[in-house]
From TrEMBL:
InterPro entries: Histidine_kinase_KdpD, Rossmann-like_a/b/a_fold. This is Histidine kinase. It comes from Oceanobacillus neutriphilus.
Length: 224
C-alpha cells in the first residue's frame, strides 16, 4: 500500500519539530507529506502569535517541499477535520504532539488520542513527546535533559568538552539539554555549583563555548 503522512500542528514552536519529524519519516518512506492546522476561529481572527506560527509553518513547508499546508479554520471539531483531510489525501500515517488533548480542544468523553483512533482506526498514529523540554529566554527549545559531564581536553589544555560517561577526568557533573533540530551536541549544560546554585555553560559541537567561572563540582579536582 502506498504511504502518505499527515502532521497535525496547533500552536507554538513545537510545530516545527513535528513538521521536521514528519519530513524525515516521509523521506525514509519516500512518500508525500501534508501538514494540517485546525482552529475554531476564522483565519482573519488569529492573534499575532498564531498568525506568526502559521506563516513560519508555511515557509518551512515550502522549504521542505511539503505536498500541501492545510488550514481548517472555523472548525469546532478537530477530530472530524483530521478525519476528513486524512480521507481526502489517503493518509496512512498521522503525527501529533503528546499534549494534543490540551491544545486542540476539550474532549469530554475519553482522551483526544482515543477519539482519534476510534474515528480513524485504519491509520497509524505517531505521538511525539513535546512536553519534557527546556525553554530558554530566547525561545530556543531543547530536548529532555540527559546526565552529562565536562572534562578538560587532554590535547587542548584550557578547552573543555562534553562527555556522557563517568571518568576520573571529569570536572563537572550536570544535565545537558540538546537543542531540538540539530544533529550535533549543541545546547546548554546545567550544573549545581559548590554554593548549591544552578550554573550553566553553552555547548557547541561538544565544546564549552562559554567561560567556566565556577570551580568543579566533582571532588578532588580543580582548574589550573
Amino acid at each position: 500500500m502506498d504511504e502518505s503522512i499527515l502532521v497535525c500542528v496547533y500552536y507554538g514552536p513545537n510545530g516545527e519539530r513535528l513538521i521536521r519529524r514528519g519530513h524525515k519519516l516521509a523521506q525514509i518512506m519516500d512518500c508525500p507529506l501534508y501538514v494540517l492546522t485546525v482552529d475554531a476561529l476564522p483565519y482573519d481572527e488569529f492573534d499575532a502569535d498564531k498568525s506568526g506560527f502559521v506563516e513560519h509553518w508555511k515557509e518551512l513547508c515550502e522549504e521542505l517541499d511539503v505536498e500541501e499546508f492545510i488550514i481548517r479554520d472555523k472548525e469546532k471539531r478537530s477530530v472530524r477535520a483530521i478525519k476528513e483531510v486524512a480521507h481526502t489525501h489517503n493518509i496512512t500515517q498521522i503525527i501529533i504532539g503528546q499534549s494534543a488533548q490540551n491544545r486542540w480542544e476539550e474532549i469530554t468523553k475519553g482522551s483526544f488520542v482515543n477519539v482519534l483512533l476510534r474515528e480513524i482506526s485504519f491509520i497509524d498514529l505517531h505521538i511525539v513527546s513535546v512536553d519534557r523540554t527546556l525553554k530558554s529566554t530566547d525561545d530556543t527549545i531543547y530536548e529532555k535533559g540527559v546526565r552529562a559531564f565536562i572534562q578538560e581536553d587532554s590535547e587542548a589544555p584550557g578547552q573543555y568538552r562534553l562527555k556522557f560517561t563517568r571518568s576520573k577526568h571529569n570536572l563537572y557533573e550536570g544535565i545537558f539539554y540538546k537543542e531540538i533540530g540539530t544533529d550535533f551536541n549543541n545546547g546548554v549544560f546545567k550544573f549545581i555549583n559548590n554554593k548549591g546554585k544552578t550554573s550553566q555553560v553553552h555547548i557547541t559541537e561538544n565544546v564549552c563555548t562559554g567561560e567556566l567561572k565556577e570551580p568543579p563540582n566533582i571532588n578532588n579536582h580543580s582548574i589550573h
